[in-house]
Amino acid sequence: MLLIKCPWCGERDMVEFTHGGDATKVYPKDPNATTSEEWHDFIYLRENPCGEHVEYWHHVAGCRQWLKVRRDTTTHDILTTAPADGDLDT
Amino acid sequence: MTGQPWRLENGGHIDRSCSLSFAFDGKIMEGHPGDTLASALLANGTHLVGRSFKYHRPRGIFSAGVEEPNALVELRTGNRQEPNSLATTTELFDGLEASSQNRWPNLRFDFSQANGALSRFLPAGFYYKTFMWPANLWLTYEHFIRKAAGMGIASRESDPDRYESRSAHCDVLVVGGGPAGLTAAMTAAEIGERVIVLEQAPHFGGWLRREKRTIDGSPAMDWVDAVSTRLSAMADVRVLTRTSAFGYYDHNMITAVERVQDHVPKSDPFLPRQRLWSIRAKRVVLATGAVEQPIAFPENDRPGVMLAGAARTYINEYGVLPGRMAVLQTNNDNAYRSAIDLLDAGARVTAVLDVRDHVDGHLPNQVRDRGVPILQGYGVVETKGYFAIRQVLARPLVGGPVRRYDCDLLCVSGGWAPQVHLHSQSGGKVVFDAEKGCFLPSEARQNCVSIGSAAGLFTLKDCLKGANGDDVPEQAIKPTWSLPNAPGRHGKRFVDFQDDVTAEDVALAHREGYVSVEHLKRYTTLGMGTDQGKTSNVIGLAIMAKLKGQNIPAVGTTKFRPPYTAVSMGAMAGRAVGHHFQPLRRSPMDNWHHDNGCKWVDAGLWRRPHFYTRPGEDVNSAALREGRTVRAGVGIVDVSTLGKIDIQGPDAAELLNRIYVNGWKKLAVGKARYGVMLREDGMAYDDGTTSRLSENHFIMTTTTANAGPVLAKLEYYLQAVWPELRVQVACVTDQYAAIAVAGPKSRDVMQRLIDLDISNDAFPFMAAAPCCFAGIAGARLFRISFSGELAYEINVPADYGQAAWNALLETGREDGVGVYGIEAMSAFRIEKGHVAGPEINGQTTIGDLGLGGLQSEQKHNIGKSLAIREGLIDPARPAVVGLVPVDGKTWIKAGAQLVENPDAPPPVAMLGHVTSIAYSGELNHPIALALLSGGKERAGEELYAAFPLRNEAVRVRVVSPHFVDPDGERMRV
User: Please, which residues have CB within 8 angstroms of residue B40's CB and are 6 or more apart in sequence?
Assistant: First the structure.
């Protein structure tokens, strides 16, 4: 049972959140100039890292804000969190 | 009534002034407050309490705690019957009913004891090997195997008790209320920390209750009482007894179950039976103690064989003599305490068998001085007795003549295993200490520390602070896991009593290549019982290590997993049972539907009216009647469950442009538009109408099922992808009641209730406007039609939903207004060829759905780029078509496969499948929608809708999906 620090609400239990997938994937800035290979990469290709990973979580049963979370997939440590359009501390 | 012949005159923490009556297998016995079921049974001379799992061998009480592998009983009767309860931890109360399990017809004569005689044919993996072929008979075998092997029987009635869950937070959580735990709790409490202390037993003290020890010269329990009383009185300290911490999860969350009322004869209805605690702690102190380990010697499972520590527990804690003539098998000094306590209680100790060659410790010498022979370098090679042990055969480990000792109790001690379960669950590592012969907690993964005997520190000096215990020096233990059979003998050496796993089974697993501990566990079921292998895991892997010629650390351990001790399903469920299992969403008009004969259908968490019954009607005839009322006049349906998302801001139209496939910038204020959105991968996702209420204000509707997910997606795009868009979105589904009013007379009825001119010129098809409806301010009117008829949808603030509904029924009475449910509504949309969930199934594109023309070429939207991939624009893709039965009357089954010839030998080419079915009141025959490969080109073809599960095949003709009013004239009048 993870404790996730929402940038707006503070540390909250993971039951208030839903996992939103890989946040290292950036939505193509200019969709019309995006090649099909780039779309394929954005939609389908995901790393499955053993260790630190950046992912989206949605504080769906709280403030309904999306956040970026740096999580260690082997230990479940939550290293840093930030708003969805913000930058994570490294 | 036989009295309690094995009860001691003095001693123990029991109340002899009060007698409690209980029944075991129907026999009435007596015990005292403070007893467990096990101690009371022993006081009455009952060792035999069960039959083993596989061989049905008689088994007795083996321990005095949570590690008990044998004494599993069924407690209580009727709807409170609970199987697999530990007699050793069940507190006795007046009127307790318990029965032995895994025997038939009774404990002394058990039909399946023949399994014991057949045991050489029932090795580990026997069931896997024997009953796998032929595979189709497994179901038959399984029935008999389960019957033979089962544990206790649970009640089939619903649980009458109430369970609660609670959350708590603290600075320091101490698990275990023995000397180390109490010392740690007091230390933390004294510096002002918020402390929670959990003790699984009814009382604090741990092993101090079970031995005659002194602290600072006084009985150790005086110290326990003083410390626990002080702790209980402190403001920031919560002490919980009868509370077992069973799980250690991420981020220092510990779960524990508090048995609030398991020990009382008559439960208080205002208290829960058990309470599940979820505790978040800054730091966790694991003072979980240690469990004594046995040694696997031949025939080591007879009733009367008992852990040495358990024997002195029954004497010191419960005032019960577990035997009058005892033999002790040990590899350590500590076990000699049991010999001393047995002697003090008046028993004879006929011999101590010690595997060590030179025994000269403080405790052994006390025993020796009292005339008990200590046989050095000796081990048990056999035991005699069936329902109770009566003789031990021992011989030197190096070989030599066998000696026989009569006894009624065989105490065994192989040393102590620190309870590292919670430490391991938390992600901490364990290391094997070859000197102490046990696994110790090492590096912790979370903010926790193990102390006292949980950390392998077994003396009082290691546990106490500022007080002095009566430790005595002890000689080193000689780690010993199993003793050999005498030459030519094949006595079973049980490693795991509960699962009937023997040392020979471990050897078999080794021979067959199941040498990793994880394979060993699964192949032999070692350690997979309710006791989680507390007295068997280490022995099992030590035997495997020896067979592999490796040391124990090289073999490793299996991962410890929750729960440490068994937890009832009720505690896990808590209050989330029955109606409380999940929330029920009700429309504002729910009560009316209920009172007017509606049959419900679940739609996610919502319940919606399926149809309204009248005598003699089934779902089809009711829906047909409801539909005809609409087609002929006017009907109303509750559509409050559709998702409603309020979208506001200067960039609202831009957001919609990016979300939907069609364009939104040119939508005039006061107009609604149908929109479809795609997933990123180009597949159709959801549809609905969205209306422009003002320049910067839209109201979006979604399907009932996707209301939540669509909102979450909008929030994602606005917050993560396009934060520059000046738009806010909010869910207003629950803020509005929504009613669709459909039928040729709908305008007449609506006009009488509304403050707008809603003539066709003033309020044409797809108009939208705020209004006052039936005196209700803040309403919104939309001229949209799901039914294909002239129709309106009125939204009013949710609190006025029933008022609006009543007004429509009242005002529409002269026009014959009717109500309809979603079965009739669904028939309308199938007649119109409107796609819904069965067609927008995540595998279809807007082209497949016949909605390809909506895609705007002027802008980009989510999924547009990927929707034009080769495979998604293939003309052979399935497309939505209509089907009618060729005979004009046979129903087509939803889910049926479309084939050209159902009788062709397999494999038969599947051309598509039936998605939605209805009976068309307009056409007077069944109709269906289907996804058919190359569907548009197949109009007029005849196929079969095959349903092989029922051996049915209906001949169908492919037609346009727009069965009724294909040009949509009716809704535009």
Answer: B4, B20, B22, B29, B30, B31, B32, B92
